[in-house]
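FAQ: What does the model actually see?

It sees only this:
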Amino acid sequence: MSEIPAKATGSTRPAARSGGALPARPVPGAGGGPLSSAPTGTTDVVTGAPGAADAAGGGARVAAGDGSGHGPADPAGEDAPGPADEGPGDEDAPAGGPAAGGPARDVVPGAPGTVGAGGSHGVAGAPGDADARHRGVGAVPARVDDPPLTTDDVVWQSSPPGSIYDYIKVASFSIGPDGLVDQWSARAERLFGVAARDAVGKDPIDAFIAPELRPAGRRKMAEILDGREWTGSVPFRVPESSLHVPESGPDAPVTGRGGGSAPAAAGLEGIAEVYVMPARTPEGERSAVCIVVDVRALRRIETDLAASQAIFGQSPFGFLLFGTDLKVQRANRRFAAVFGGAVDDHRGRTVHDYLPRHEADRMQDAMRRVLETGEAVTDMQIVGPAPGSNERRHWSINLYRVHSGSGRPIGVAGLGNDVTNRHAAAREAAHARRNLALLNEAGARIGNSLDLETTARELLDVSVPGFCDLASVDLYQGLLDGDEAAHIRQSLAEGSAELRRVAFASAVADAPFPDGTGPVDVGSVHRFAFNSPCAEALRTARPRLVAADDDCGPARRLTSGLIQSTLAVPMVAHDTVVGLAQFSRTKGSEPFGERDRALAVELASRAAVCIDNARLYRREHERALILQRSLLPPGDPEAAGLDIACRYLPGNAATEVGGDWFDVIELPGHRTALVVGDVMGRGLRAAVAMGELRSAVRTLALLDLEPAEVLSALDEIARGLGNPQGQQHARRGAPARSRDTDDLAEVYLATCVYAVYDAVTRRVTFANAGHLPPVLVEPGESALMLDVPPGMPLGVGGEPFEEVDVDLPEGALLALYTDGLVESRDHPLDEGLNAFVGALDDPAQALEDICDHVLNTLDTHHGEDDIALLMARVQGLPAEHVGDWTLPREPQSVGRARELACQRLREWDLEALVDTAELLVSELVTNALRYGEGEIRLRLLLDRTLVCEVWDAGLVQPRRRRARDTDEGGRGLQLVGLLSAAWGSRRTPRGKTVWFELALPDGESQPMDAAEALMSLF
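And it is asked to produce this:
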């Protein structure tokens, strides 16, 4: 056991471990309150405030008589304190050792659980605790009945403990018989800021007391020197001339947690608690030892204790103080109210008594880190059930290390706040943000396509897995079939009509569905049972929450226990139920709530509107396609002298129907008009405009106009299509038009190429209105694009159209097409034209094979536009099937014409047509002689029908009229119309041509008898 030298006595004394045998009286003012001046009896014990003994040379010193001659024992039997000789870091032990002739009596009891070390000697520690570390802060005075000290209870101090003197400032000085300061301790220097050389030898009343208090002070001093003890509060003032104590070196002031620094300047005033104990000098003269406590530090301790009590005791948050062993030392009322029991019931517990094991381990590790490193932990989230409840609660925990006045860690403080409501609000906010994000994503992704199935899949792509684990969409079969009336009746009747599963999505891989209980296959048609929740949702147009064991149809019932709950949401658009969307969550996921129900309804509503729009578009698309197909030539068209093949490919369902069309029109004289056109625009309006233009083309072609004239007339018609007042208004171009008229007016533009092929001459005449050039492939030659001048598109007006004549060799291939064949987003027009020309590398194949080869070679599956392709191979009439004669303008030419016609018919083995042809040729040649001009030309053409043409130079067209009964003439054309299959007239560059056509005998039907036909006219 080491010894500590006692500088005042020259001897060594041990420090007491436990309370001494003498009763201890607390030092007045040790609790922080003011002290009143009151003489006391004989007491030589100074009891410290809560805490351990003085630390590191900063505590109270009590001088007692000893064998050194400093402060002999009181003759009256009391231990008269002598002056304390103080040095930095070491103080005199308050004891009267063997040299003093008596036992140690001046004892300073310490706080429980600690023993002071290296400071004031003779500090009593807590019973049964020899640890030199301070853990307590409360003062426990020694009791009278404490057992006497033994050798085992003595501990020699060698390190600074935690002590009350870490918080308050205590100093000592002594007064000699003359009333002057004769000793001034180092602590007094730091407390008063006055050096010993300036204090020793001065009258303390004159030096430190205000002038108005000096008379009373002198009276007290006289009483003290007469041997009376005194304690009280004394105002003091540092003299102006005092020198400051240096702030560095061994005597530098030590500031505790509760104490302040020394006075910063001379003239500072304060209040000191003074404890004056009479003493005697070696000569027997009366003196006094004064112990001084800074009242300001006591006031601060009082304030800190009140604040600590307010924070700890009155805090609305749970507060725990853990010791260094991580056990609860103190809990506040709020914590006890939450976890039950009284406040003292929680002492000694650990976090494992309150939290689940994994959370308790996590918090204990955090406390251990805080205790070791001193780094605070803020907002640590802990989850656990409340006492007596299975409800999960969330707490926010803040941990920080607690230190003693000397800065030594003494434990960990924990502040807990129940943030369950905040977590619930945050969860609700997160759900709201998720729902808003889903709605935003739904608005961006759903409805990008006008396809029913694609729109349904887009809904599921948004919903799975962000909103649910499984989802499906069923649409009414009647809606998909276009039977709207039946669909509406079924949906309003019972809600159990046939539905088709159009989409299904799952985020559960390899879902364990038993046989026969899995979801309905996509594309399958099924029904919901009438009493099922799904049927009720369809019937009432309200969402239903379906439990896992509810029956939503024969194939929908999940007996495997995979599904926790399902939301059956009817898809309503424009007050019409179009189908049912089902959103399912598997077990382990959060069940559906009211917010989820509202979100599901919103998602289904948005998808329903998009699906209904897709349905309406599909209906319009199908109707436009039906209209367009009805206006195209049915089947494979036939023409005299031509082998024809055609293809028409509409755009896909995602694009509207275009205005592409083609036509093959048979003209008189075994001529054929080939037409390909494209109305700019899409949709039903474009299809209607195409139908009007096609009808106009056929009408104009039957008038046997030249190609340029046909396009000019079409241009006028196109200009009038978009004008509500008709073609005449468009032609006149009235300058003044109302705003309403401008709003209704639309511009219809179209491109068109019109070609007339003559099978006799193998000549084709082209006229182009802004269309792509035709492609010609001659036998043995490469394909080339014909140089046909492209005029302005139809509907622009103001520009004439040019004609180009091209003679075609036998076997030549002619191709007319629209821009959808050669142009797309990925392939520019020039590239497409070159590819089309290159695809016609083998014109000897069958036309059908050539068409298929072209469509397979080119990029025709883009679906961006309609595609029309018309191909014709030249097969001119053989020379032996043509009879052509020129007759002079004389009456004999009528008989000659009959002879030539009958002779050629017999050569062609058409004896059955001789009588009829002879009569009709005679009638036409007679009219040419009577009403025509110039030479007469007779031509017979044999192909699929027999055509007879009579040419003359007259410009007046024959006009058929009904002759009266009394008229001698006027019945010739009536007879021609009655006996022929068709007849007509057309203008030619040099006159006109009147023609009739007879059907070839097929062996079943007999032609009308000429005599009967003639008699029927009368």
